[in-house]
Write a structure and sequence with these properties.
The protein has two helices and four strands. With 87 residues, the chain is mostly helical. The longest helix is centred in the middle third of the chain and has 25 residues. It is elongated.
């Protein structure tokens, strides 16, 4: 469960980190309040929201089991642990 949460947090922070790298590369003041005005932060938050919504859609589309499949939980067979799977 921690991996999907970390993926979403990372996707949210990517636009802000990219903008910070841009400010640093252009030699502007990275901690200057003029570089981080409300309009810029709003656009970055919007870009972050688009990334997160896109990742939700991709995870729902490609991360699920096939339709009408049956989940077989992990179990022991002949002393060996057989991992769970979809059938």
């Amino acid at each position: 469960m921690i991996r999907p949460v970390l993926i979403e947090i990372t996707l949210f922070l990517i636009p802000f980190a990219a903008y910070a790298v841009f400010i640093w590369a252009t030699r502007s003041g990275i901690f200057d309040s003029d570089a981080w005005n409300v309009r810029v932060v709003g656009w970055l938050a919007l870009a972050a929201a688009v990334l997160i919504i896109g990742s939700f859609i991709l995870m729902a589309r490609f991360g699920a089991a096939p339709p009408y499949s049956t989940y077989e939980p992990a179990h022991m067979e002949d002393g060996q642990l057989v991992p769970g799977r979809n059938r």
